[in-house]
Design brief:
Keywords: ATP-binding, Nucleotide-binding. The chain has 430 residues and is α/β, with parallel strands linked by helices. It folds into two domains: 119 residues, 3-Layer(aba) Sandwich (Rossmann fold), CATH 3.40.50; 287 residues, no CATH class. The chain contains 14 helices and 13 strands. A six-stranded mixed sheet has the order 7-8-9-10-12-11, sandwiched between helices. Helix 7 crosses helix 8 and helix 8 packs across helix 9.
């Protein structure tokens, strides 16, 4: 396809197609799932094609196998509109006993009660996110997360970012939506996230499970989440904030709205890392509130790049969301995952990047250089705490961190004398 923007997930999709009969690509609307799937597909069926939708749904309910006919790999876009297709795909994979037969894409997670089998061993699940800064061409990618793990002593001194704070603010406000890169102006590109929020609140939040929901209540909940982005705000605190503007909303109703937004891949909280370094009662194990893309939070709050340039404190929280989005993409490509650490003594790591081989990095996010010293102190204290724990613990020792990193909005990368690596987000890639 002409003008296709290469995505980090492309390589993983290729591997999955070689290993499994079918691959399910999930993620938020507009992140590029269908376009990415089309690069590998040899035939396509779009379940939401307005000219064909009714006929497709009738066929799915009568003889779904007919929709599976076509050159392979066959892409079935928004398959969740006809959940019966899941079991049909599974059976077809069993029948043909081949790899790379189907690519399924979906912008909502499906209620498991609507399918008979999990698809384990036949259908593999691949998560896709909006674009990272490296994918959008804004990070120069001169520092590789993979190479850092392979060689923690890698010389990064003097590597420079091409992005200023103003550029980062614009990138966060625009979001990682592929279509925005082709817009004629920045003003037009910024409308995408606003339109995304409108679609979520006015339509998607009700169609995701057929339960009619109040668009204004959806906005109120999203605004509360946005005000608490990148924090450990408890659900009770969010409810207190929400109920002040929607006094008839119950906690159960709010939970229903949040669940719907999670199924739409709009909200994606960060789980805690809870090693036995201290007493379990000391570890704060609540979820860190995050959006799948910072542009959603910015649009919900009605902020503009100009306003954020005058409020860098607020942008600091949004910057963390941007960094987490990018690290999720980079870590997934390496077979890893992201969590965070925080205890009641204030010791924290904004993110912990875990690889499946046991290696991990402790990471802090600091927008400006003034905060670097504090971030480095947190990371070094946590490393020392693990070391002291291992001195006392003979049976179940903890692996010491392989990397200590501070990801910044600054311009220059370097390694401190204490080993902490300072890396601009606009220098990173997987």
């Amino acid at each position: 396809m002409e003008n296709y923007i290469n995505r980090i997930v492309d390589a993983e999709l290729g591997l999955r197609l070689e290993a499994f009969g079918a691959t399910l690509i999930v993620g938020p609307k507009w992140c590029g799932k269908t376009t990415t799937g089309e690069q590998k597909a040899k035939s396509v069926i779009r379940m939401q094609d307005p000219d064909m939708r009714e006929g497709y749904l009738v066929t799915a309910n009568t003889k779904p196998s007919l929709l599976l006919k076509g050159e392979k790999p066959r892409l079935i876009d928004e398959w969740q509109d006809a959940p019966v297709l899941w079991d049909s795909v599974r059976m077809e994979v069993d029948r043909q006993k081949q790899e790379g037969l189907f690519i399924l894409t979906g912008s909502t997670s499906v209620d498991n009660s609507q399918i008979l089998h999990t698809g384990t061993g036949r259908i593999t699940r691949l998560k896709m996110y909006p674009m990272s800064l490296y994918e959008s061409g804004e990070s120069n990618g001169q520092i590789s997360v993979s190479e850092l793990f392979e060689d923690p002593s890698l010389d990064i001194d003097g590597i420079m970012s091409d992005m200023k704070i103003e550029d980062l603010i614009y990138a966060a406000s625009r979001g990682g939506w592929p279509a925005t890169l082709r817009k004629k102006s920045e003003a037009i590109a910024l409308l995408t996230a606003k339109d995304y929020v409108n679609n979520i609140c006015e339509s998607d939040i009700s169609t995701v499970d057929g339960i009619q929901r109040n668009p204004e209540w959806a906005r109120i909940i999203l605004r509360s989440y946005a005000r608490n982005i990148s924090t450990l705000a408890k659900k009770t605190n969010i409810y207190k904030d929400v109920s002040a503007n929607a006094d008839s909303m119950s906690m159960a109703t709010m939970d229903s709205y949040i669940n719907a937004m999670e199924r739409l891949f709009v909200l994606e909280d960060l789980e805690a890392w809870c090693p036995a370094i201290r007493s379990a009662t000391v570890i704060r194990a609540g979820k860190k509130r995050e959006f799948v893309d910072p542009s959603i939070a910015i649009a919900v709050l009605g902020l503009t790049p100009d306003a954020l340039q005058l409020d860098l404190k607020t942008f600091g929280f949004l910057f963390e969301c941007l960094c987490i989005r990018d690290l999720k993409i980079y870590s997934q490509a390496l077979g890893g995952r992201i969590s965070y650490y925080h205890d009641r003594y204030g010791l924290e790591a904004d993110a912990v990047l875990h690889l499946d081989n046991g290696k991990y990095a402790l990471i802090e996010f600091k927008l400006g250089s003034r905060e670097i010293e504090e971030g480095a102190a947190h990371l070094l204290q946590l490393k020392e705490l693990i070391r002291k724990y291992n001195e006392k613990e003979q049976q179940c020792k903890l692996r010491e961190p392989d990397l200590l990193m501070i990801i910044t909005g600054g311009n220059m990368a370097y390694t401190r004398e204490d080993g902490v690596k300072i890396i601009p987000i606009a220098c990173l890639k997987n």
